[in-house]
């Protein structure tokens, strides 16, 4: 199968992590699967995968099941299998640098202290892949405790809106390219 994009969301497998802040990437993939009427339930590339077509683009959704710090082990397998260029890999993950609900997209960059992204950069050998960062709030005390905690009740609506915005950004990317998607996600444009 010729593939146009891999969209990978980062998180930790297991029920106890499902709704934690660190699983914002997994939550986004689940929402994308719903949006594009597919399931991310097949086991391949050390992860769970699903696929869909939209705007004449074939897309693979991937949730690495390797735990966060080894996300690159799963992603490199999918990238190599489909011979996808790094600019056609979109990684969605949580970011403690932003308030809950803030969404930002960029074409490349450092790991920013995120161990999942660090693993991907190490395995791919490049920082040149697009990423969508979903704000999960700045830790008030212990960082590990913060990222593994669930969203507070007053934050749930914000994170849901952030995930909706991410999905809309992906639609724009598939229809009109990455620059339009970045303008939408990074701006205050309402579609």
Q: Would you kindly provide a written description of the structure presented here, covering whatever features stand out?
A:
38% of the residues lie in helices and 21% in strands. The model has no long low-confidence stretch (mean pLDDT 94). The protein has a seven-stranded mixed beta sheet with strand order 2-3-4-1-5-7-6, with helices on both faces. It has one domain (5-186): Peptidyl-tRNA hydrolase (Rossmann fold, 3-Layer(aba) Sandwich). The chain contains six helices and seven strands, in the order E-H-E-E-E-H-E-E-H-E-H-H-H. The chain has 191 residues and is of the alpha/beta class. It is globular. Helix 1 (24-35) packs across helix 5, helix 2 (71-82) runs parallel beside helix 3 (115-124) and helix 5 (153-176) packs antiparallel against helix 6 (178-186).
- Calculate the terminal CA-CA distance, rounded to whole Å: 32 Å
Mean pLDDT: 94
Give the helix/strand class: alpha/beta
Shape verdict: globular
The CATH architecture term is 3-Layer(aba) Sandwich
Assigned CATH superfamily? Peptidyl-tRNA hydrolase
Number of domains: 1
In summary, what is this structure?
The protein is α/β, with parallel strands linked by helices and 191 residues long.
Jot down its keywords.
191 residues, alpha/beta, Rossmann fold, seven-stranded mixed sheet, 7 strands
Summarize the topology:
Layout: E1 5-9, H1 24-35, E2 42-44, E3 47-54, E4 57-64, H2 71-82, E5 89-95, E6 103-106, H3 115-124, E7 131-135, H4 143-147, H5 153-176, H6 178-186
């Amino acid at each position: 199968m010729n593939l146009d994009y891999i969209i990978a969301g980062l998180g930790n497998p297991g029920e106890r992590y499902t709704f934690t802040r660190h699983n914002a990437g997994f939550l986004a993939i689940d929402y994308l699967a719903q949006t594009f009427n597919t399931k991310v339930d097949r086991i391949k590339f050390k992860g769970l995968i699903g696929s869909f077509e939209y705007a004449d683009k074939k897309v693979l959704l991937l949730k690495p099941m390797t735990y966060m710090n080894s996300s690159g082990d799963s992603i490199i397998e999918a990238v190599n299998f489909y011979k996808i260029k790094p600019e056609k890999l979109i990684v969605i993950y949580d970011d403690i640098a932003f308030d809950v609900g803030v969404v930002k997209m960029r074409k490349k960059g450092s790991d920013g202290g995120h161990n999942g992204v660090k693993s991907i950069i190490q395995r791919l050998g490049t920082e040149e892949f697009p990423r969508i960062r979903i704000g999960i709030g700045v830790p008030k005390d212990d960082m590990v405790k913060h990222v593994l905690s669930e969203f507070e009740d007053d934050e749930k609506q914000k994170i849901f809106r952030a995930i909706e915005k991410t999905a809309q950004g992906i639609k724009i990317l598939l229809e009109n390219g990455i620059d339009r998607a970045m303008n939408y996600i990074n701006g205050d444009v309402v579609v």
